[in-house]
Specification:
Helix content is 41%, strand content 19%. By secondary structure, it is an alpha/beta fold. The protein folds into 2 domains: 138 residues, ATPase, nucleotide binding domain (Nucleotidyltransferase, domain 5, 2-Layer Sandwich); 168 residues, ATPase, nucleotide binding domain (Nucleotidyltransferase, domain 5, 2-Layer Sandwich), CATH 3.30.420.40. The protein is globular. The mean pLDDT is 92. Bound molecules: 5'-O-[(R)-(carboxyoxy)(hydroxy)phosphoryl]adenosine (KG4) and zinc ion (ZN). The site of zinc ion has 5 residues, from helix 4.
Length: 358
């Protein structure tokens, strides 16, 4: 249970969350990177509105996200996604803006200029409708993507894999979590994007590499697995190994551009190395805690091979949760769910954005 008292204009108090005793409709806004998103979720699980405006096309021409341009695009899209979410809520569930229980916004980590657009919009809505405001951590929100349309309840083990993070998290309860392992250098998504670039695939590299890998031979090349602590990861050595392999293959084939079948084998071998390392360590963490449930979250949870290997744990009696693709990549429904379940949220309307995990 969570008593919320925002103190700027309103002295209103509200009880939000599973024990509030009434239906909660939380509208959330997400704008931490290159997706402008707004959603309305009933009781943390039932999505009644979900709108995402993607900037992928804009940033593709630069080969990556340009923060200043991203922030300006958020400004162009923010009112449109909010209006569309209100419209969907009305059409799908007869819910009006006055029926919203609380407004939530992503506080960080993310690009500061981008976060400011969404967060200020969410705070403004809270003030206009005189409702509580809840600030949400983007990483916790990714975990909560697993509560959407499911009956998942803690405790469980989580593998959080995104462009900025790679963590194994022991989720003990809705509000209590412990990171038990993480990357000591590159995040998985970052490694995917860097390797994609060095083999000549266009932005966004991760999904493109995944697609190539699916058509290649994962056993074509043996790539090195880093030696780090039991539950930690390291991907920078692997990236260098792929660079060396590509150089060697180019020399062998006497070409500047590798034949597509060879490129597919390189991608598949990289994907095999990453996915087997991740899932092996998750399995170890499950054995250590005795948990029977495991979830995968973050943008890289969309990866075909990581999903396949995680779901294979079901053969060993584990219950596996992975959000559908639309809740893997950045979206606001996961932010609304996080605000409802009170997973390390901030309920002061004066909360500031932050770029990195503190
Ligand atoms: O969580 P996310 O949407 O953004 C944050 O980092 O917060 O994750 C984006 C990352 C990018 O690095 C992208 O390349 C990667 O997720 N990604 C994938 C796939 N889809 C997205 N990586 C590998 N395979 C995929 N199918
Ligand atoms: Zn994300």
């Amino acid at each position: 249970m969570k008593m919320i008292k925002n103190t700027l204009f309103s002295e209103k108090q509200a009880v939000i969350g599973p024990d509030s005793g009434y239906d909660n409709y939380i509208m959330a806004i997400e704008s931490s990177c290159d997706e402008t998103a707004c959603a309305i979720v009933k009781n943390g699980r039932e999505v009644i509105a979900n709108v995402v405006a993607s900037q992928i096309k804009t940033h593709a021409q630069f080969g990556g996200v340009i923060p200043e341009i991203a922030a300006r695009e958020h400004l162009d899209s923010i009112n449109i996604v909010i209006e569309e979410a209100f419209k969907q809520a009305k059409d799908n569930a007869g819910i009006n803006p006055e029926d919203i229980t609380a407004f939530a916004g992503t506080v960080g980590p993310g690009l500061v200029g981008c976060l400011l657009v969404g967060l200020n919009a969410a705070k403004t809505l809270a003030l206009v409708y005189d409702k509580p405001f809840i600030g949400v951590n983007h990483l916790n929100a990714h975990l909560c993507g697993n509560y959407l349309d499911t009956d998942l309840k803690p405790p469980f083990m989580a593998l959080l894999v995104s462009g900025g993070h790679t963590q194994i998290i022991d989720v003990k309860s809705y509000s209590e979590q412990q990171i038990i392992g993480e990357t000591i250098d590159d995040a998985v998504g970052e490694a995917y994007d860097k390797v994609a670039r060095l083999v000549g695939l266009p932005y966004p590299g991760g999904p493109k590499l995944d697609k190539m890998a699916q058509e290649g031979n994962p056993k074509a090349y043996i790539l090195p697995k880093a030696k780090v602590d039991e539950f930690d990861f390291s991907f920078s050595g692997l990236k260098t190994a792929v660079l060396r392999l590509v150089k060697q293959l180019k020399a062998e084939y006497n070409t500047d551009e590798l034949p597509e079948n060879i490129l597919k084998d390189v991608c598949a071998s990289f994907q095999e190395c990453v996915s087997s390392t991740l899932v092996k360590k998750v399995r170890k963490a499950l054995d250590k805690t005795g948990y029977k449930q495991v979830v995968i979250a973050g943008g890289v949870a969309a990866n075909s091979e990581i999903r396949k290997k995680i779901f294979a744990l079901e053969n060993d009696g584990f219950k596996v949760f992975a959000p559908p693709m639309k809740y893997c990549t950045d979206n606001a429904a996961m932010v609304a769910s996080c605000a409802y379940f009170n997973t390390n949220t901030f309920d002061d309307i004066n909360v500031e954005v932050f770029s990195r995990v503190k």
